[in-house]
Design goal:
about 240 residues, alpha/beta, Rossmann fold, seven-stranded parallel beta sheet, 7 helices, binds nicotinamide-adenine-dinucleotide
Length: about 240
């Protein structure tokens, strides 16, 4: 039986990369899926390719008003929301010397504030369903202090911490909140590095390869499903052993 039949799942930043893989996975397991992104053409094309049970909504996670209208539209369309994947993110490698306030603020607004707003506005819709699951995309650099990650990794450390705060606050409402920590995953985000840097990076991990978006989607679907009903506040790596 399809695990997500009758469930509605929102994935932010889902026009491409890991978010798009999440959407395909949830849809293949029976969910109504909501693709949100600032990339309109790609997001719409993904939803159109899935046909029924799929909707694209243009949505900037750093914009508070857009969260309110997102949940209103999804509840009106599908009758409720069961799962939110806070996946949207941007990455810019920069040393501390290269990092200015503008970069810190930009990454904060999308990666950290966007995740916070998603959790805040998901609470009432999830409560109306009697509970649900929120999955926040952090990173392996949200668990370690690596060079050239000050602006980005500080947001991912925050996502990891906010996840635990939300998990403890929302458990009474049967809302589970977990963070996922990918290592090197082959998406456009890795284009921020040159190829040699990427290859050297994943060759230094035990599995000596990058992961795929589909390998991350398997974990996200587990955390969204009733296979993980006693899992909350967890931080789970999907990194080929990067963090060992
Ligand atoms: N690729 C990796 O190796 C890696 C590793 C660790 C963590 N992550 C995290 O995983 C998540 C997915 O990344 P990805 O690798 O698929 O990257 P990606 O760049 O392919 O996808 C990110 C998506 O987020 C969207 N986005 C950016 N700003 C947005 C905004 N303001 N509002 C809504 N959407 C916005 C982009 O348009 C894009 O579609 C991110 O949170 C990223 O930080 C990625």
């Amino acid at each position: 039986m399809a695990r997500f039949q009758g469930k509605t799942v929102i994935v932010t930043g889902a026009a491409r990369g890991m978010g798009a893989a999440d959407i395909r996975r949830f849809h293949s397991e029976g969910a109504n899926v909501v693709v949100t992104d600032v990339l309109v053409e790609e997001g719409k094309a993904l939803a159109d390719s899935l046909g029924e049970r799929a909707l694209f909504i243009q949505h900037d996670v750093s914009n508070e008003a857009s969260w309110k209208s997102l949940f209103e539209t999804v509840e009106a369309t599908f009758g409720g929301v069961d799962v939110l994947v806070n996946n949207a993110g941007v990455y810019r490698p920069a040393t501390i010397a290269e990092t200015d306030a503008e970069l810190v603020e930009k990454l904060f607004r999308i990666n950290q504030l966007g995740t916070f707003l998603g959790m805040k506005y998901a609470i009432e819709p999830l409560k109306r369903r009697g509970g649900g699951s929120i999955i926040n995309m952090s990173s392996v650099v949200g668990m370690a202090g690596k060079p050239s990650t000050m602006a980005y990794a500080s947001t991912k450390w925050a996502v990891r911490g906010m996840t635990k705060i939300a998990a403890s606050e929302l458990a009474d409402f049967k809302i589970r909140v977990n963070s996922v920590h990918p290592g090197y995953i082959s998406t456009e985000m890795l284009n921020a590095h040159d190829e040699q840097t990427n290859i050297a990076g994943w060759m230094a991990t035990p599995m000596k390869r990058p992961g795929t978006s589909e390998e991350v989607a398997g974990l996200v679907a587990f955390l969204a499903s009733d296979d993980s009903t006693f899992v909350t506040g967890a931080e789970i790596t999907v990194d080929g052993g990067w963090t060992l």
